């Protein structure tokens, strides 16, 4: 009966409890910055904040989807840059195709790279974390070779539009798109067979397989979906910054991982919500914004973000350990 009730809810009681800490931290950060700075609540700063968060929030959807099943995928930043570079370098001059064609090209490359990652992990039985670290080097190396030190700034108007345009009410279209995708994925997690299977595999893959869940097929699909979200992240990021270089999204995956864990996703799989990931990445973006507004040295800013990432992972490890002890 409780299970039926949970499936009717967008968020379960456990998910709500896991989101409360990061929601509280986000509210506290907003209140402190609103009092201590004159510009945090300005329209332009809020526009920049949500536009900047959008790319990482979409990347978090893909990363969390794989993490829920108990696997790691840290290739997000590398897939972002390679999907952009691969698409723009392999396509003929843009004027040959209708405006916006490169959007589908970037998504296609992202999906292909996600499928490749999933194939190595699922069918070649390579450890997911190690595979991610190796593929990061390969994907970034390919992007660097294709660019050969050059930068790409020629993009169609629809491509730039997604990352920069705002509505008549002053809300970035990218922020609306991200929130919409987040809600869709939360509904998918809570109310579809794919979401139920992903969570079940994360809790115990052997039991899930015994129950008839096609574990390999499901996990491979999750990697493909992750590649799609990395492609969307690439479009939002490149559209906002207006230039593609080999260093684009460098290190972004670690910040996203921290946001995912802060949002309540367990590193051991089986627990988490996409709305929590949305808030976790938003909180880290606010911290990054605060570092700039308060004129804190970039070195200290990097140190602070490292401490936040370390603390989030440490707390997740302790909570999982306590949960296992309690079951014993």
From TrEMBL:
GO terms, molecular function: transmembrane transporter activity
Kinase listed as a keyword: no
Annotated TM spans: 20-41, 61-91, 103-123, 129-147, 159-184, 222-244, 256-287, 299-317
Signal peptide (UniProt feature, chain positions): none
Keyword vocabulary terms for this entry: Cell membrane, Membrane, Transmembrane, Transmembrane helix
CC terms in the record's Gene Ontology section: plasma membrane
Annotated localization: Cell membrane
Membrane topology of the entry: Multi-pass membrane protein
Pfam family, one: BPD_transp_2
Name listed for the protein in its UniProt record: ABC transporter permease
Native organism: Hominifimenecus microfluidus
